[in-house]
């Protein structure tokens, strides 16, 4: 009797106690349009933690908003999916989006740290944050109530900020609080919504400010020394200095073995261009064209 692990099977005792499992993957969108679409499967195993009683309690408090220091934005070409999200650090970045397009950036976030992101653009954008397990936090979950300053004539500005990454957040019932229980490479997805077919296909210039805030704290102690390592603090620049650009010292990507230990068996499934709960992102492979030009 081998248990079958589904995407919501992490709460099943059979799936946490068994040494052998079968993974069931299906097209839950139930649409012929997506049948046979390329998919990416992520499986991460976590060792037992010996110091749970000494770790900070679960929290949904975002903490104080930190105003961004003035900086010259660094041009960046984001990825088109989770697998090629562009690694960045704290700083200011600029890129263009077409209506309906999404770009992906990857930011290392350690235990006890919060991530805040702020965009400035001539139209409204959507910012979605994804944990290392690709649990999504929408702007509704992480909206901030703070003075973001004057964005300038004909520009809009909005921002999000997460609570600190806390191991014991996985004890909470809320989906978005549970997402804040995993340190590692977080994905920032920025989308220019397409209102309808008549939406002009005009490039939207975007400035995105990112800040990894807080000191590393509340680090779980894993009893298995072979467990995947969390990115070290030295790899996570927290300065808003524009010299912290991806071109100067690229950070290791999540696909290079740097994803930290997370749930006992955690599964993330994303079709090419598939974001979180099933919304398909319209993206262009500008990185490929830029490389060939």
Write structural notes for this entry.
The structure is a single chain. The protein has 293 residues and is mainly beta. The protein has helices at residues 13-17, 139-142, 175-179, 286-292, and strands at 4-5, 22-23, 39-45, 74-75, 86-87, 91-97, 102-109, 114-121, 126-130, 136-137, 156-161, 184-191, 204-213, 265-271, 274-275, 279-280. Strands 4-6-13-8-11 form a five-stranded mixed β-sheet. The longest helix has 7 residues, at 286-292. The chain is globular and about 55 Å long. The relative contact order is 0.26.
N-C termini distance: 55 Å
Look at the helices and sheets and give the structural class.
mainly beta
Major β-sheet annotation: 5 strands, mixed
| Order of strands in the sheet with most strands | 4-6-13-8-11
Residue-averaged pLDDT, rounded? Answer: 73
What's the alpha carbon Rg, rounded to whole Å? 19 Å
Overall form? globular
Q: Multimeric state of these chains?
A: single chain
Assign a percent range to the helix content.
under 10%
Low-confidence parts: 1-9, 227-293
Number of helices: 4
Q: What pattern of helices and strands is seen along the backbone?
A: EHEEEEEEEEEHEHEEEEEH
What's the total number of strands?
16
Strand content: 25-35%
